[in-house]
Design a protein that fits this description.
Elements: E1 2-13, H1 19-24, E2 26-36, H2 39-44, H3 53-64, H4 71-85, E3 89-99, E4 110-116
Antiparallel strand pairs: 1-2, 2-3, 3-4
Helix pairs in contact: 3-4
Length: 117
């Protein structure tokens, strides 16, 4: 078994409960931790045996382009779509963070949601 980590993927997107968030957008980061059987890849050194993380990134990007109200909803879609696209995945964890969210005058670096399947 092995893991692939895709960390710090940055997106500008339109997720949030407030109308303004869905109009002006904000910056988000997404991290994935993907566990899959790396036995074939370890021996072959062929991309065809590996989990192609460029293809994984494209799935995440596609889901980030669809506006949602809640981080949990976006994270759930990412989990489902990545898992459906890559059935060799054994376990996956996603963290999605809204950078510098508006909290009524308070200052906070990020608000995040972490989900696993």
């Amino acid at each position: 078994m092995g893991k692939i980590l895709l960390q710090g993927m940055e997106f500008f997107a339109y997720h949030g409960c407030f109308r303004e968030e869905q109009i002006i957008g904000t910056k988000f980061t997404v991290d994935l931790e993907i566990e899959y059987d790396t036995t074939a890849t370890e021996k072959s050194d062929r991309l065809s045996d590996a989990l192609n993380y460029q293809a994984v990134y494209q799935v995440v990007k596609k889901e980030m382009e669809k506006p949602s109200h809640l981080l949990e909803h976006v994270a759930g879609r990412i989990l489902d779509e990545v898992k459906n696209a890559f059935p060799r995945i054994i376990h996956i964890t996603v963290k999605i963070a809204k950078i510098n969210p508006s909290l009524g005058g308070g200052k906070i670096h990020e608000v995040a949601c972490i989900l696993s399947h």
